[in-house]
Protein backbone atom coordinates (compact mmCIF):
# COMPACT_ATOMS: atom_id res chain seq x y z
CA UNK A 1 0.00 0.00 0.00
CA UNK A 2 1.57 3.33 -0.99
CA UNK A 3 2.05 6.03 1.62
CA UNK A 4 -0.83 8.47 1.58
CA UNK A 5 -2.04 11.49 3.51
CA UNK A 6 -5.70 10.63 2.78
CA UNK A 7 -7.89 9.21 5.58
CA UNK A 8 -7.09 5.54 5.97
CA UNK A 9 -8.41 2.73 8.15
CA UNK A 10 -6.13 -0.03 9.46
CA UNK A 11 -7.11 -2.93 11.73
CA UNK A 12 -4.57 -4.55 14.03
CA UNK A 13 -4.29 -6.77 17.08
CA UNK A 14 -1.37 -4.85 18.60
CA UNK A 15 0.42 -1.53 18.21
CA UNK A 16 4.19 -1.08 18.55
CA UNK A 17 5.26 2.47 19.33
CA UNK A 18 8.58 4.19 18.85
CA UNK A 19 9.32 6.97 21.37
CA UNK A 20 11.55 9.80 20.12
CA UNK A 21 9.81 11.75 17.36
CA UNK A 22 6.74 9.54 17.63
CA UNK A 23 5.44 9.98 21.18
CA UNK A 24 8.03 12.41 22.53
CA UNK A 25 9.49 15.49 20.88
CA UNK A 26 13.11 15.33 22.01
CA UNK A 27 14.53 17.03 18.94
CA UNK A 28 16.14 19.90 20.85
CA UNK A 29 18.13 17.75 23.28
CA UNK A 30 19.16 15.27 20.57
CA UNK A 31 20.47 18.16 18.48
CA UNK A 32 22.37 19.66 21.43
CA UNK A 33 24.07 16.47 22.51
CA UNK A 34 24.89 14.97 19.13
CA UNK A 35 26.18 18.23 17.66
CA UNK A 36 28.53 18.54 20.65
CA UNK A 37 29.62 14.96 20.00
CA UNK A 38 30.22 15.80 16.31
CA UNK A 39 32.36 18.80 17.27
CA UNK A 40 34.45 16.70 19.67
CA UNK A 41 35.19 14.23 16.87
CA UNK A 42 35.72 16.76 14.09
CA UNK A 43 32.64 15.65 12.16
CA UNK A 44 30.08 17.68 10.27
CA UNK A 45 27.07 18.24 12.50
CA UNK A 46 24.52 17.98 9.70
CA UNK A 47 26.00 14.68 8.54
CA UNK A 48 25.85 13.33 12.09
CA UNK A 49 22.21 14.39 12.51
CA UNK A 50 21.29 12.65 9.25
CA UNK A 51 22.45 9.34 10.76
CA UNK A 52 21.55 9.31 14.44
CA UNK A 53 17.74 9.33 14.44
CA UNK A 54 16.17 5.98 15.29
CA UNK A 55 19.39 4.08 15.95
CA UNK A 56 21.09 3.23 19.22
CA UNK A 57 24.02 5.56 19.81
CA UNK A 58 26.72 2.94 19.35
CA UNK A 59 25.17 1.91 16.02
CA UNK A 60 25.26 5.52 14.83
CA UNK A 61 28.87 5.80 15.94
CA UNK A 62 29.73 2.67 13.98
CA UNK A 63 28.39 4.34 10.83
CA UNK A 64 30.09 7.67 11.50
CA UNK A 65 33.42 6.31 12.81
CA UNK A 66 33.71 2.96 11.00
CA UNK A 67 37.33 2.34 12.02
CA UNK A 68 36.79 2.84 15.74
CA UNK A 69 36.66 -0.34 17.90
CA UNK A 70 33.19 -1.47 18.94
CA UNK A 71 34.10 -1.47 22.64
CA UNK A 72 34.99 2.22 22.36
CA UNK A 73 31.63 2.96 20.74
CA UNK A 74 29.87 1.12 23.57
CA UNK A 75 31.75 3.11 26.22
CA UNK A 76 31.07 6.39 24.42
CA UNK A 77 27.41 5.43 24.02
CA UNK A 78 27.11 4.82 27.79
CA UNK A 79 28.39 8.34 28.43
CA UNK A 80 26.00 9.77 25.84
CA UNK A 81 23.02 7.93 27.37
CA UNK A 82 23.84 9.37 30.80
CA UNK A 83 24.10 12.85 29.29
CA UNK A 84 20.81 12.46 27.42
CA UNK A 85 19.02 11.10 30.49
CA UNK A 86 20.11 14.10 32.56
CA UNK A 87 19.02 16.66 29.93
CA UNK A 88 15.25 16.86 29.49
CA UNK A 89 15.10 20.59 28.73
CA UNK A 90 12.56 21.13 25.97
CA UNK A 91 11.25 17.55 25.94
CA UNK A 92 7.50 17.59 25.26
CA UNK A 93 4.86 15.23 23.97
CA UNK A 94 4.21 14.97 20.26
CA UNK A 95 0.76 16.57 19.78
CA UNK A 96 -1.95 14.02 20.57
CA UNK A 97 0.37 11.51 22.26
CA UNK A 98 -1.31 11.69 25.66
CA UNK A 99 -4.79 11.14 24.27
CA UNK A 100 -3.50 8.39 22.00
CA UNK A 101 -1.91 6.47 24.88
CA UNK A 102 -5.04 6.95 26.98
CA UNK A 103 -7.09 5.42 24.17
CA UNK A 104 -4.75 2.39 24.16
CA UNK A 105 -5.20 1.69 27.88
CA UNK A 106 -6.09 -1.99 28.24
CA UNK A 107 -5.30 -2.72 24.57
CA UNK A 108 -2.22 -4.66 23.37
CA UNK A 109 0.58 -2.18 22.77
CA UNK A 110 4.28 -1.87 23.51
CA UNK A 111 7.02 0.74 23.45
CA UNK A 112 9.87 -0.24 21.12
CA UNK A 113 12.69 2.29 21.44
CA UNK A 114 16.40 2.58 20.82
CA UNK A 115 16.70 4.37 24.18
CA UNK A 116 17.62 2.42 27.29
CA UNK A 117 15.06 2.14 30.08
CA UNK A 118 16.51 5.02 32.11
CA UNK A 119 16.38 7.39 29.13
CA UNK A 120 12.92 6.21 28.06
CA UNK A 121 11.62 6.75 31.59
CA UNK A 122 13.18 10.21 31.85
CA UNK A 123 11.80 11.41 28.52
CA UNK A 124 8.32 9.95 28.96
CA UNK A 125 8.15 11.50 32.43
CA UNK A 126 9.35 14.87 31.12
CA UNK A 127 6.66 14.77 28.44
CA UNK A 128 4.00 13.80 31.00
CA UNK A 129 3.29 10.47 29.31
CA UNK A 130 2.74 7.05 30.91
CA UNK A 131 5.34 4.40 30.14
CA UNK A 132 3.62 1.38 28.54
CA UNK A 133 3.71 -1.77 30.66
CA UNK A 134 5.34 -3.70 27.81
CA UNK A 135 8.52 -2.12 26.49
CA UNK A 136 11.46 -3.20 24.39
CA UNK A 137 14.41 -0.93 25.15
CA UNK A 138 18.08 -0.93 24.18
CA UNK A 139 18.87 -3.49 26.89
CA UNK A 140 16.36 -5.93 25.36
CA UNK A 141 17.98 -6.40 21.96
CA UNK A 142 21.28 -7.38 20.39
CA UNK A 143 20.76 -5.35 17.20
CA UNK A 144 19.69 -1.73 16.77
CA UNK A 145 17.08 -0.48 14.33
CA UNK A 146 16.99 -0.78 11.30
CA UNK A 147 17.24 -4.43 12.37
CA UNK A 148 13.69 -5.73 13.04
CA UNK A 149 14.63 -7.51 16.30
CA UNK A 150 13.00 -4.95 18.59
CA UNK A 151 9.66 -5.00 16.81
CA UNK A 152 9.66 -8.79 16.59
CA UNK A 153 10.35 -9.00 20.32
CA UNK A 154 7.53 -6.55 20.99
CA UNK A 155 5.09 -8.68 18.98
CA UNK A 156 6.26 -11.83 20.76
CA UNK A 157 5.84 -10.20 24.19
CA UNK A 158 2.26 -9.34 23.29
CA UNK A 159 1.60 -12.77 21.79
CA UNK A 160 0.62 -11.30 18.42
CA UNK A 161 1.72 -12.34 14.94
CA UNK A 162 3.91 -9.66 13.30
CA UNK A 163 1.50 -9.38 10.38
CA UNK A 164 -1.22 -8.34 12.84
CA UNK A 165 0.85 -5.47 14.29
CA UNK A 166 0.97 -1.82 13.27
CA UNK A 167 4.14 0.16 14.00
CA UNK A 168 4.22 3.92 14.68
CA UNK A 169 7.59 5.41 13.70
CA UNK A 170 9.17 8.65 12.52
CA UNK A 171 12.73 7.77 11.45
CA UNK A 172 14.12 6.02 8.40
CA UNK A 173 15.84 3.39 10.54
CA UNK A 174 12.66 2.69 12.50
CA UNK A 175 10.41 2.53 9.46
CA UNK A 176 12.84 0.13 7.78
CA UNK A 177 12.84 -2.02 10.93
CA UNK A 178 9.06 -2.21 10.99
CA UNK A 179 8.86 -3.10 7.32
CA UNK A 180 11.56 -5.77 7.73
CA UNK A 181 9.53 -7.25 10.60
CA UNK A 182 6.62 -7.77 8.20
CA UNK A 183 4.48 -5.10 9.86
CA UNK A 184 2.47 -2.19 8.54
CA UNK A 185 3.99 1.15 9.45
CA UNK A 186 2.37 4.50 10.22
CA UNK A 187 4.88 7.29 9.69
CA UNK A 188 4.58 10.18 12.15
CA UNK A 189 5.62 13.64 10.99
CA UNK A 190 6.26 15.18 7.60
CA UNK A 191 9.77 13.74 7.35
CA UNK A 192 8.52 10.17 7.66
CA UNK A 193 7.02 10.14 4.16
CA UNK A 194 10.47 9.94 2.54
CA UNK A 195 11.12 6.54 4.15
CA UNK A 196 8.24 4.54 2.70
CA UNK A 197 5.70 3.97 5.49
CA UNK A 198 2.26 2.67 4.57
CA UNK A 199 0.47 5.75 5.88
CA UNK A 200 1.67 9.17 7.07
CA UNK A 201 0.08 11.35 9.77
CA UNK A 202 1.17 14.86 10.71
CA UNK A 203 1.06 13.95 14.40
CA UNK A 204 -1.00 11.78 16.74
CA UNK A 205 -3.99 14.13 16.72
CA UNK A 206 -4.70 12.51 13.35
CA UNK A 207 -5.11 9.04 14.89
CA UNK A 208 -8.42 7.75 16.28
CA UNK A 209 -8.54 4.40 18.11
CA UNK A 210 -11.60 2.17 18.18
CA UNK A 211 -12.03 -1.35 19.60
CA UNK A 212 -13.91 -3.68 17.25
CA UNK A 213 -15.08 -7.27 17.57
CA UNK A 214 -12.81 -9.98 19.05
CA UNK A 215 -10.36 -7.48 20.52
CA UNK A 216 -9.05 -5.99 17.29
CA UNK A 217 -8.12 -2.31 17.13
CA UNK A 218 -9.34 -0.10 14.31
CA UNK A 219 -7.22 2.95 13.52
CA UNK A 220 -8.63 5.89 11.60
CA UNK A 221 -5.68 7.85 10.27
CA UNK A 222 -5.67 11.28 8.70
What's this model, at a glance?
The protein is built from 8 helices and 11 strands.
Key traits:
222 residues; alpha/beta; six-stranded parallel sheet; three-stranded antiparallel sheet; 8 helices; 11 strands; disordered N terminus
- Structural class call reads alpha/beta
- Strand proportion, as a percent range, falls in 15-25%
Distance between the termini: 15 Å
Identify the strand order in the major beta sheet. Answer: 6-5-2-7-8-9
Tell me, briefly, the overall form. Answer: globular
Number of helices: 8
Number of E-state strands: 11
The biggest sheet amounts to: 6 strands, parallel
- State mean pLDDT (0 to 100 scale): 94
- The residue ranges in which pLDDT falls below 50 over 5 or more consecutive positions are 1-5
Helix content percent band: 25-40%
The run of helices and strands is EEEHHHHEHEHEHEHEEEE
Radius of gyration using CA atoms only: 17 Å
Describe the structure.
This protein has 222 residues and is an alpha/beta fold. Helices cover 37% and strands 19% of the residues. The strands form three sheets. Strands 6-5-2-7-8-9 form a six-stranded parallel beta sheet, with helices on one face. A three-stranded antiparallel beta sheet has the order 1-11-10, with no helix packed on it. Helix 8 links the parallel strand 7 and strand 8. The longest helix is centred in the middle third of the chain and has 17 residues. The N terminus is likely disordered.
Amino acid sequence: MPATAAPTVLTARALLLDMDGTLVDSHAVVERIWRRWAERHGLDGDEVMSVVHGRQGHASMAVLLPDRPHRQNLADNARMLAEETADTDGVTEVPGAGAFLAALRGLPHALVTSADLALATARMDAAGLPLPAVRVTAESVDASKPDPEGFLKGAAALGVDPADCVVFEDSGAGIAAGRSAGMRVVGVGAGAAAHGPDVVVRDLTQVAVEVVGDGAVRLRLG
